[in-house]
Amino acid sequence: FLEKSEEPLSKITAERLGQRYEQREEILQFFNDLKTTMIIPMLSQKRLLGMIALGNKKSGELLVHEDMELLTTIANQAVTAIENAHAYEEIEKLNLELERKVAQRTASLRKTLEEKEKTQKQLVQSESLAAIGQLVAGAAHELNNPLASASSLIQSSLETISKAEKTGDDVADDLKFSLKELRRMRDIVKSLLDLSRQTQVYVEPVPVNVAIDDALRILYNQYKYLRVEIEKNYDENLPVVEGNFANLGQVFINVIKNALQALPNGVGRIILTTSYDSGKDSVAI
């Protein structure tokens, strides 16, 4: 009734409601139970939030127009306070929900980034192992040449010593050449071991010139039959850099391999230059 009328309701007005008004008795009973004579509705957008129930004045005087204006103002202020309280509670709920969603989203993003990083590491390792597998196949062929040469010369030297068909100088020359070939084979193996280490994320002092030479040694079998000239312009005073030897070695292999593949018909020159800028404390390759 109050929502529809949007006006204060007195007991006298309620008593004057027609007998046919179905809520008349209920309204009168409400007045009697509360021992009140006037009800001021508290409305918000035509929705009843509450009411102010008034009894008789102690003086016995009737409520006048000024009293009603004051009470209506109080009711309106109370409605504003209630709405603000509800709005604050709603904002608090929204903030809590937002914080919960942000926390969930952050956790999800963190998990996604961790999985992505793990996948990238696995991919890099797989690509590195695949590349090393190809290089090992070529290096194995490369190792066969000095091994065959050294084995043959050592065998020949042993036979010569036993038959004394050659002078001591000839035997010494053969053994020296065999030793040289064996050392070359040792260097190739060392390069493979350096580049095939587990590519974990750790930092170590890396001599850049040595890492490039190792990459060239590994790739030698791929360019030895090409008409390509490898020119080295190394800075001999180059400081070591902080990095990962295996990872840098793989980078140098890829760069040099790309340069070899870019040569027209396998003919040309590749210049490898290293330098140090003390002002910027940086190494250029």
According to CATH, the fold-level topology of the domain at 202-285 is: Heat Shock Protein 90
Order of helices and strands: HEHHEEHHEHEEHEEE
CATH architecture of the domain at 202-285: 2-Layer Sandwich
Largest sheet: 3 strands, antiparallel
**What's the pLDDT, averaged over the residues?**
76
- Give the overall silhouette: rod-shaped
CATH superfamily of the domain at 202-285: Histidine kinase-like ATPase, C-terminal domain
CATH class of the domain at 202-285: Alpha Beta
**End-to-end separation:** 88 Å
Enumerate the strands of the largest sheet in spatial order, edge to edge or round the barrel: 1-2-3
Number of helices: 7
Structure summarized in a few sentences:
With 285 residues, this protein is an alpha+beta fold.
Write the layout of secondary structure elements.
Blueprint lengths: L1 H4 L3 E2 H5 L8 H11 L3 E7 L2 E8 L10 H99 L4 H28 L8 E3 L1 H16 L3 E7 L7 E3 L1 H18 L4 E7 L1 E3 L4 E3 L1
Parallel strand pairs: 5-7
Antiparallel strand pairs: 1-2, 2-3, 4-6, 8-9
Helix pairs in contact: 4-5, 4-6, 5-6, 6-7
